[in-house]
Amino acid sequence: MSDFDVNPFVEAASDNNPFNDPSVTQVTNSNVDPVDQYNPFPPSDGLATNTSPYQPAVLQPSTEPSPQATAAVAQAELLKQQEELERKAAELDRREQQLQTRQASSGRENNWPPLPKSFPIRPCFYQDFSEEIPPQYQRVCKMMYYLWMMNCVTLFLNLLACLAFFIKDSGQGVGFGLSILWLILFSPCSFLCWYRPVYKAFKSDNSVSFFFFFFVFFCQVVIFIIQAVGIPNWGNSGWITAFTSLHQDTAVGGIMIMVAILFTFCAVLSVILLKMVHGLYRRTGASFQKAQQEFSQGVFTSNTFQTAASSAAQSALQRNN
After folding, report:
1. What is the dihedral of CA 216, 221, 227, 230, to 10 degrees?
2. Please, what is the average pLDDT of the chain?
3. pLDDT for 290
4. Phi, psi of 231 (to 5 degrees)
5. Is there a domain that residue 282 lies in?
6. In whole angstroms, what is the distance from residue 317 CA to residue 320 CA?
7. CB within 8 Å of 125: residues ≥ 6 apart
8. Residues 19-34 pLDDT 10s
9. Within a domain: residue 274?
10. Residue 217: partners with Cβ closer than 8 Å, 6 or more residues away
């Protein structure tokens, strides 16, 4: 019955009441609002040290590069470009030496024109695009070769068209004779005068060969245009001659129109290739001064020029004595 004598409304002993903790009773019995108790700026004396882990943000002033730094960067860029050009020149020299060594050691034989071994005439040139022409120039060089082959085929078809026109009209003998001359003359001359120079120019990056090619190939473009026009009795089955023959015979006129189309295609393709070769030539950094320097070096270092100069000097000394 002792448990029923305990008054539940009497405060329990401080040891058993958790709300009698001093820290809790101080807050609950205080008349100050808890918000007012918080001071974000606690008082501190002059000797107190800043223990906050956060530091104030400091804006770094922006500094522009000085003229000396800009000049140094530009000079470094120029030196880098010069080293790149020297590396390319050394690579070209190394490739040329390898080709010469390979030719001397293996006894490389000419392979163009591709003639049978039993043929009495042997090939006169060596041609290998994958071995002698750098990869970036192979496509344009092959297109120049295809243009030369198309020119030869067109000249042969032109001869047949002029022959057919001569059979139909006996007064066209001059045109037929000139068509034979153009086939015999332009086929080998175009190979020697503008295809081989551009092949050598791409092979050795020679400015003299490039300038020679530009001069001769410009004349070839003019010839293509004249052939496409087809002036009567000039030996060309161009548009004027084709329409003239079309009134006399339809079959002959059709053959000449086909040849005129081929001449026109050759003229257009030659203009495109001339522009492409000129673009590649400008990318190599070549110039007229470089061509003059290469030409003078080639002349002065040639054995023929040295022999002639020594002979002239000896003759002059003998005359003076």
Report:
1. -130
2. 78
3. 56
4. -65, 135
5. yes
6. 5
7. 110, 111, 112, 113, 196
8. 565 655 655 555 555 5
9. yes
10. 194, 198, 270, 274, 277
Instruction: Identify the helix (H) or strand (E) that includes residue 23.
Output: helix 22-29
d(CA 169, CA 35) in angstroms, rounded, equals: 122
Phi–psi pair at 123, nearest 5 degrees: -60, 150
> What is the span of the domain harbouring residue 238?
132-299
Kindly report whether the peptide bond that precedes residue 18 is cis, defined as omega within 30 degrees of 0: no
- The helix or strand, by DSSP H or E, that contains position 301, with its residue range, turns out to be none
Output the DSSP codes for 152-194. Answer: HHHHHHHHHHHHHHHHH-GGGHHHHHHHHHHHHHHHHHHIIII
Confidence of residue 150 (pLDDT cuts 50, 70, 90): very high
* Residue 39 CA: distances (Å) to CA of 34, 36, 68: 11, 7, 55
Please count the other Cβ atoms lying within 10 Å of the Cβ belonging to residue 6: 8
Q: Coil, helix or strand for 28?
A: helix
In this structure, the chain runs to a length of: 321
Tell me the C-alpha distance between 36 and 217, whole Å.
Answer: 98
Encoded amino acid at 39, one letter? N
Distances (CA, A) of 213 to 150, 169, 276, 295: 18, 40, 13, 15
In sign, the C-alpha dihedral spanning 75, 77, 78, 82 is positive
Task: Confirm whether 161 is domain-assigned.
Answer: yes
Q: How many domains does the chain have?
A: 1
Whether residue 258 lies inside any domain: the answer is: yes
- Reply yes or no on whether the pLDDT at 199 is more than 90: yes
